[in-house]
Each structure stands twice: as C-alpha cells, then as structure tokens.
Design brief:
There is one protein chain. With 307 residues, the protein is α/β, with parallel strands linked by helices. It folds into 2 domains: 5-120, 2,3-Dihydroxybiphenyl 1,2-Dioxygenase, domain 1, CATH 3.10.180.10; 152-304, 2,3-Dihydroxybiphenyl 1,2-Dioxygenase, domain 1. The chain has helices at residues 18-28, 75-88, 161-171, 222-234, 287-291, 300-304, and strands at residues 5-15, 32-36, 42-45, 55-59, 64-72, 92-95, 106-109, 117-120, 150-158, 175-181, 187-193, 201-205, 211-218, 239-245, 252-257, 263-268, 280-283. The strands form 2 sheets. It has a 9-stranded mixed sheet with strand order 14-15-16-13-9-12-11-10-17. A hairpin with a 5-residue loop joins strand 15 (252-257) and strand 16 (263-268). One of its GO terms (molecular function) is ferrous iron binding. InterPro entries: Catechol_2-3_dOase, Fosfomycin_Res_Enzymes, Glyas_Bleomycin-R_OHBP_Dase, Glyas_Fos-R_dOase_dom, VOC_core, Xdiol_ring_cleave_dOase_1/2, XylE-like_N. It catalyses: catechol + O2 = (2Z,4E)-2-hydroxy-6-oxohexa-2,4-dienoate + H(+).
Length: 307
C-alpha cells in the first residue's frame, strides 16, 4: 500500500568548483539555473519539471551526495512517515522551512546504507520552463545542451542494502521492481519505484557507506541519447560508458562525469511497473548482460568508481 511518497523531488550534490559545475549542468545537460542562496548553493531544474528546482549544487572539498529528497502528498503524510521512520529505528531530524529556498519543512533520516534522505510536502512551483501549464507548446525554444527533461533517479552504493530496501518498502511504500541475486539467493542490487517508473532509486551492495554511483536525467528518445553522445565529444566531457542499452529496466543510456567526478546518466525509454507485477530477477552470473545488454561484459571502472 502506498504511504504518501509521490516522486523524487531533489538531490543535493557536492562539487569541487561551483562555476565549472554550473557550466556543466546548464550547458552540457541543459538544466536551467533558477536561484542561489546565502550559503552559496545553486538551484537548477529540468524544463518539464513544475517545481522550482530538482538539483542543488554545493561547493565542497570532496564530491558526492549530500541527500535525496522525496515529495509527499501532504503534510499529514510527512508527519505519519516521520513517526514510522522513528519506530523503524532511523535517526530523524526536522529541517525548518526555507533552509532550502522555497521548500517547506523537511524530515531528514538516515539509512542502513549510510545515505541521507528527506521527505517534504511543499516546494515553490514555477511551472514548466518556457511553456507554462496553460496551452503549452511541445517544447520551449532556447534549450541548451542535452535538453534534460527531469531528474529521474539515483543509484546508490552501501552496505546492508537489504535493510535500506526494507525501509523503502515497509515504511515509505516503494515497490521492488527489479533485483540482482547471487546463487545463494542474496540480493546484490535492488531497483525500487514509488509509481509506475522502472525505478525511482536503486541500491547496490558495497562495503563503503553513503556512496553515489550516479544521478540520472531523462531524455525524450534514443535519438536524443545519441545526440548527447555527440555533445559529450564536442565539449570534451569525460565519458564513462555508452551509448548502449541496459538489460535491467531496458533503458537506452549513456554515462559521463561532471567536472568534479560525479557520474551522470542520461537515458530514454525503460520499463513500466504496476504493483501486481512482482520484481524482475537477474542472476548474478548474468550481471554483464543485465547492465550492458549489448556487450554482455562488465566494466570494472563502471562498478567501482564512486563519489
């Protein structure tokens, strides 16, 4: 049964050079800068997103992930989930309204994998950039770069993914859409959704806590993924893998790095999920095909380079 979590809302990422990062996320990925705050953080959104921002960049001496936030149905849902998170054993703290610009009260909690997550019910909405919500055109003129359509998901690494997956299923109401298991039945990876998407967050077992593998943004089509590959070469952006297709989710994808070493993904397509579907299972010995469907071979750097 769904618990009131609607969708991914925002992610705060640490970068080494704020100006370089802003240039990358606006000129390469095609996000739109919407604000800055007195802490020096920069707020960005993709053009189809109704909320004012989905990505927050913070300058730091080490790259990586600060937290991922999820939008909830209403304040009553946040209050109910706050109580259930406490009962589950999470360390829970309240972040006051306005700590992130335009965002209401947030409830932040930890997880067995060492990641921090947030729940909130209200954020300033500025509408779809360049087209609005009334008689909108198909797309806005003036988009740059890859023309990313939305922040879609994160893939996170840490220990005890079983505990974090239980947290997301039992407390937050996510469904397990896809998984990788070894021949003893141990789950090595889990892909969870709070709606109909292939996944809204994914976890892979890793001894180090709180690691980020990638943040992902949706593109319109496979042609746009190929165009993204061209832009990666045109801008001398550090490429990782692709263009290719995943076996898991069947999304068409390419991976690359921001100037601080945080991995980005842009993708198109992918499976859909209903609660009565049950999880798709991949055997660990088929992991190469599960991740890189065409090559069917694992890439060690893809699995091990994290921030």
């Amino acid at each position: 049964m769904k618990k009131g979590v609607l969708r991914p809302g925002h992610v705060q990422v640490r970068v080494l050079d704020l100006d370089e990062a802003v240039k990358h996320y606006t000129e390469v990925l095609g996000l739109i800068e919407t604000d800055r705050d007195d802490q020096g953080r920069v707020y960005l959104k993709a053009w189809t997103e109704v909320d004012k921002y989905s990505l927050v960049l913070r300058q730091s001496d080490a790259p990586g992930l600060d937290y991922v936030g999820y939008k909830c149905l209403d304040e009553a849902a946040v209050e109910r989930l706050q109580q259930e998170l406490t009962e589950f054993g999470c360390h829970v703290e309240e972040i006051p309204p306005g700590e992130l610009k335009g965002c209401g009260r947030r409830v932040r909690f930890d997880s067995p994998t060492g990641h921090l997550f947030e729940l909130y019910a209200s954020k300033e909405q500025t509408g779809r950039w360049g087209v609005g919500n009334h008689n909108p055109e198909a797309w806005p003129r003036g988009l740059r770069g890859m023309k990313a359509q939305r922040f879609d998901h994160c893939l996170l690494y840490g220990p005890d993914i079983a505990g974090t997956i239980q947290l997301f299923e039992k407390v937050l109401g996510f469904d397990l859409a896809e998984q990788v298991v070894d021949n003893q039945g141990n789950r090595l990876a889990g892909f969870l959704t709070c709606g109909m998407k292939a996944h809204d967050v994914a976890f892979i077992e890793c001894p180090e806590k709180g690691k980020l593998h990638h943040i992902s943004f949706l593109l319109e089509s496979w042609d746009e993924v190929l165009r993204a590959a061209d832009l990666i070469s045109m801008t001398d952006t550090s490429i990782d893998i692709g263009p290719t297709r995943h076996g898991i989710t069947h999304g068409k994808t390419i991976y690359f790095f921001d100037p601080s070493g945080n991995r980005n993904e842009v993708f198109a397509g992918g499976d859909y999920f209903y609660p009565d579907h049950g999880p798709i299972t991949w055997d660990a010995e088929q992991l190469g095909k599960a991740i890189f469907y065409h090559d069917r071979v694992l890439n060690d750097a893809f699995l091990s380079v994290l921030t």
